[in-house]
Amino acid sequence: MHFGDLALKILAQEKLSVLLFHAVPSTTTELVNDLTLASFERVIDYVSEHFTVVPLDEAAAALKTGRLPRRAACITFDDGYDSWLSGAVPLLRQRNLHATFFITTGQFDNERMWHERVAHALANHAGPVLDLPGFGLPQVPLGQLQERRRALSMVEQLLKYQPLHVRDKLLHALEASAGTRQDQLCRMTVEQLRDLHAQGFGVGAHTVRHPILSLCDDDDAMHEIGGAREVLEHLLRAPVKAFAYPNGRPGVDFRSEHVRMVQAAGYTHAVTTEGGAANRQTSVFEIPRFTPWGPSDVQMGVQMARNLMAKSRRVMVASSGTPAPDKKATDGRDQRPLVAFVENGAGFGGAVVALQTLLSNSHATGYRYHVVTNMPVGDFTQTAEESVVIPDRAVDYRAMARRVRARLGAGLLARGVLFALGRADDLTNRLPYFLRLVAHLLKVRPAIVHGNNDPSANREAMMAARLLGIPYIQHVRGSVSDSLALPMMRNGPATFIPVSRWLTGELLRSGVPAERIRQIYDGIDLAAQASETTPDLRTELDLPEDTILIAMVGMLVAWKGQDLFLDALAALQPSAKARVIALVVGDTPERGDASYARGLHARAEELGLSDRVRFLGRRNDLQSLLPQINISVSASTSPEPLGLVMLEALAHGCLFVGPAFGAACEVTEDGTTGFLFKPGSAASLAAKLELAIERAASPRAGAQQDGRDLIDRQFSGARCARSTSWVHQHLLDAR
Q1: Lowest CB count within 10 Å: 39, 344, 516, 533, which one?
Q2: Where does the Glycosyltransferase subfamily 4-like N-terminal domain start and stop, copy by copy (predicted)?
């Protein structure tokens, strides 16, 4: 007996190795590099020689009793492919090996697997680039084979973690762009399913449409889990006992409530994609699986041995998915995990408002919250145990940098001076802030540190958490193309939470794997908005009741595009211009450049808009004003990550006009729920404003309810808080 065989024999005692395969085609394509049939044959030859292959249902029963056969192994397949009957099945029968095939039942209603549709579309896309506004991956090159492979990987990772209705919409857009249809792909037929079962192989359920269960509402998740079993049992006239979780990572792709749904649906066992081997302590509803690939027997043995030694994560079936809200120690101290949010932005703005809404909806999540800000912004007295200010700036080098750029331009001397100012900022501002933050975190001892802004703004928070060995989560609320250039910034956070699909795409392009990304839209609180009183804005501004109000709300900074908005107003047809008053709501942020705001006032006078534009400054009664606004505008010159004002406007039935990039494309359908213009084009914005003005003159009945339904379905504060608490819980469970 070789040493490797002896090691496997020892490691495999009272353990079950479950192998996972998918299509196993006879040959690979240029674009998709699957495990081929020849490689699969080498794997099963090795397994049949070194392990005892048993049916999965027998192995699951033996796990409970501790009577597994010597070096037990099972073979499983996921999804459902017509090629199985001519490829993998004959090889298994030749060796008298049993396997269980987990089937998605949507294909029996002519729906192909979503990732097969993506590969087919990108393989046949004729364009040099994939350019679909709102897709989340603008301008993806397709010219070279490696570029096309990278595009396939990014599109698959992006679509994998989208709700079903979003995934469907994006798939249709991709297929329309490529000129492909899903009926051009083969699928498993009912006859092939019955043939597979008649040959003695096991059949299990793999949901109806292969969604990520953790993204589904409870009713939808139960339909996916139980509905697949009902379809298979109807078609086979036989019981179906086994279930496979789509994508299958515990705590990420499914949670404890989904395990309970699997039990309630009548299954007797279920498998994950978490690596490792099962033993007597393993729940039969979370049996781990992995895929060995060889290519040699020695490498196969190493892979099998490593898997036998791996520790598998699982969700706690007895848990509710969040810590108990009243968890107390015997001495009366609150034992709920503490999450420390670090807000380190440029002042009061969308990130602060989003954090306030998140925490105000988090009272039932079972966590305690602590907020650290770099300046007095926001009111967290009712939602956090404590809110402290740790200043991060003793010297304002940014103002100095603006003066350097204004006087020296972009030459070599300017770059040298700016570099020196940056290092001075590190020494006199950021280093002292980092040390104070470390000392504070040592004092409060959080279980998780959660950066609320973006990687560059929260750099010190990430470094402090890493130094102290505390799990770190990074919210992403703006472009990361520059801030993730350093590997430290990409690798530091355990999880990134982008607030839009566009930001998810940026993270993927920057090299962050999909497994560390959990997209969660910021939420707004409809209940709080509904309780607001409503002073009459037109009376305040001395305007006729039939005046159409167009509002642009946001901090007065150049990239927000208030100057573009003014140019578009000036380009309106006289008949349209005479019917409207434009409101610019907002002020220079605490650490912004006030010269931009002064320039806007001068620009309005220069364009002859003094009687058409009102600068209202910062308003604390925005929720009272929005119901009286007819049209809400975003004119950002850089993609907007997710404008809360856009969501609030939709909730109040306002028409929204925004640029056709960034998150605006995810929320607005051009011509239906609003209008999208060519980014950076005043003429295009003016044309869309004229369409919006016409519609505002005769508003559609039910528009406000449609907007509120959208917010409640996808952008509610409660949904945001619940999803964020799941990320916190998964991070703690993984420790």
Answers
A1: 533
A2: 349-527
- Among residues 361, 358, 385, the alpha carbon closest in space to that of 371 is found at 385
User: From the DSSP assignment, how many helices (H) and strands (E) are in the chain?
Assistant: 29, 21
Residues 273 and 253: their CA atoms lie apart, in Å, by 10
Q: What is the C-alpha to C-alpha distance for residues 335 and 324, in angstroms, rounded to an integer?
A: 9
For the chain, how far is it from start to end, CA to CA, in angstroms? Answer: 38
pLDDT tens digits along 336-375 = 899 999 998 877 778 888 899 999 988 877 899 999 998 8
Cα four-point dihedral sign 671, 675, 676, 680: positive
Give the residue-averaged pLDDT of 4-8: 69
The predicted pLDDT at position 293 comes to 84
φ/ψ (deg, to 5) at 651: -65, -25
Name the nearest CA neighbour of 120 among 144, 157, 152. 152
Distance CA 664, CA 702 (A): 22
Record the tokens describing residue 322, joined without a space.
């969040």
Q: What is the Cα–Cα distance from 312 to 287, expressed in whole angstroms?
A: 9
Strand pairing report for 448-451 and 472-476? parallel
Which pLDDT does position 218 carry in this prediction?
A: 92
Whether 22 and 273 have beta carbons less than 8 Å apart is answered as: no
pTM for this predicted structure? 0.83
CB contact burial 325-357 (16+ within 10 A = b; e otherwise): eeeeeeeeeeebbbbbbbbbbbbbbbbbbbbbb
Gyration radius of the chain's alpha carbons: 29
Give me the torsion for CA of 372, 376, 377, 381, rounded to 10°. Answer: 70
Q: What is the pLDDT confidence band of residue 530, given thresholds at 50, 70 and 90? A: very low
The whole-angstrom separation of Cα 586 and Cα 633 is 13
Predicted pLDDT at 321: 42
Mean of the pLDDT values across residues 85-99? Answer: 96
Task: Domains for the chain: give ranges and CATH numbers.
Answer: 3-109+187-309 (3.20.20.370), 111-186 (no CATH), 338-523 (3.40.50.2000), 526-715 (3.40.50.2000)
Give dist(CA 488, CA 675) in Å, integer. 40
Percent of the chain with pLDDT over 90: 51
**Burial class of residue 547, CB neighbours in 10 A (0-12, 13-18, 19+):** middle
Q: pLDDT tens for residues 271-290? A: 999 999 999 899 999 999 99
State how far the Cα of 383 lies from the Cα of 401, in Å rounded to an integer.
37
CA dist., res. 20 & res. 197, Å (int) = 19
* pLDDT tens-digit series, residues 174-199: 999 999 999 999 999 999 999 999 99
